[in-house]
Specification:
- The structure is a single chain.
- Helix content is about 20%, strand content about 40%.
- The N and C termini lie far apart (about 70 Å).
- It has a single domain, classed as Alpha-Beta Complex (Sulfite Oxidase, Chain A, domain 2), CATH 3.90.420.10.
- A hairpin with a 2-residue loop joins strand 7 and strand 8.
- It contains 4 helices and 11 strands, in the order αββαββαββαβββββ.
- Strands 3, 4, 7, 8, 9 and 10 form a 6-stranded antiparallel beta sheet that branches. It has a 5-stranded mixed beta sheet with strand order 2-1-11-5-6.
- The protein is of the alpha+beta class.
Length: about 160
């Protein structure tokens, strides 16, 4: 009887270890803040808020002057940020950089699963202040915004 109990215990331990798998490393997010302007006012979304959302990896391939290049970005979806600050829907979003450069996204681009606010590019923290880049994977460079600081929601 003891032998059966020990065998069952050993099998249970092996099954538990097999099901849990190795612990994934925690994603380190540098400290930053991003302002979302809505009809209700300004809301600040921080790196601490981002850590509570699904972290996504996005492979973006672009072509410039006939040369194709691929970058890997890590961040959170713009749609998830908007939902986190209480935006249920919009007709578009204007992304504003720290230097006031801005790009307007139509609703379908703003809410797409492959439009992210990234803080990492090709394995390294983005080297700007703030360390953020809005990256829509729409195969065009002119929609990406470096030093992304603010999103203005268009109702």
């Amino acid at each position: 009887m003891k032998r059966i109990a020990l065998l069952l215990l050993a099998a249970l331990m092996v099954l538990t270890l097999a099901c849990t798998g190795p612990k994934l490393p925690e994603v380190e997010i540098p400290a930053w803040s991003f302002t979302v302007v809505t009809a209700d006012g300004e809301k600040v979304f921080t790196s601490a808020d981002a850590a509570k959302l699904e972290i996504v990896t996005l492979e973006v391939t672009t072509t410039k002057d006939g040369v194709e290049s691929t970058d890997i970005y890590v961040g959170v979806r713009l749609a998830d940020i908007l939902a986190a600050v209480g935006v249920a829907d919009c007709s578009g979003v204007t992304i504003v950089a720290a230097d006031d450069y801005e790009v307007a996204y139509e609703r379908d681009i703003a809410l797409a699963n492959d439009t992210i606010l990234a803080w990492e590019r090709n394995g390294a923290v983005i080297d700007t202040e703030p360390p953020l880049r809005m990256v829509p994977n729409q195969n065009t460079r002119n929609l990406s915004v470096k030093n992304a600081a603010k999103a203005i929601v268009i109702p």
